[in-house]
Amino acid sequence: QKEVEQNSGPLSVPEGAIASLNCTYSDRGSQSFFWYRQYSGKSPELIMFIYSNGDKEDGRFTAQLNKASQYVSLLIRDSQPSDSATYLCAVNPLLPGGYQKVTFGIGTKLQVIP
Amino acid sequence: EAGVAQSPRYKIIEKRQSVAFWCNPISGHATLYWYQQILGQGPKLLIQFQNNGVVDDSQLPKDRFSAERLKGVDSTLKIQPAKLEDSAVYLCASSLEGRQETQYFGPGTRLLVL
Lengths: 114, 114
Prior knowledge:
The structure holds two protein chains of two kinds.
Chain A: E1 4-5, E2 11-14, E3 19-25, E4 30-38, E5 45-50, E6 54-58, E7 61-66, E8 71-76, E9 85-93, E10 103-104, E11 108-113
Parallel strand pairs in A: 2-11
Antiparallel strand pairs in A: 1-3, 3-8, 4-5, 4-9, 6-7, 7-8, 9-10, 9-11
Chain B: E1 5-7, E2 10-13, E3 19-24, E4 31-37, E5 44-50, E6 53-56, E7 65-68, E8 75-79, E9 88-95, E10 104-105, E11 109-113
Parallel strand pairs in B: 2-11
Antiparallel strand pairs in B: 1-3, 3-8, 4-5, 4-9, 5-6, 7-8, 9-10, 9-11
């Protein structure tokens, strides 16, 4: 079982719609969860992180975490063509000795159709 | 604030040759990471430095890859000898000490091994 699982997509949504990106993780000891956006040919950039169960909102982005189900999602409201990118889910399990290591999923490619 | 710098941006070599990549992190960032991102996959952590000490190199193929961070600032990653499967983007990232949730990535070095 992969540590972080995502559907590679592509996920196509019309402009103005809500895009829902999902991620599951295997390590129940994971402490924090991140969403990175990566445009084609560019480097990843952090868009949100979440630590606690529930929702965290930042502008058009909402991250949702359910630790019992080992599930984290990212909702993008009012999707724009500029949101077209690959969204990487990353998880930060707490390893022995207090060391934390970020593990990335393969990413979901989002296409917002004008 | 200057971002993470990497060089070269592109490199084409033949298998069995050697190659080296350079990274200069954001000033004041104690933690430096080298990731390998193969096309269609998420970044995979190769090595993590805290100042000039290695925190994690569990996924570094030590028979051919080596990395160092002398003086706790710049870092170099070397591959010797290169294999076809080493073709990837090599990303350097940095963060403040204890702030793995906020990593800043450099532009990456695109390596093609022929």
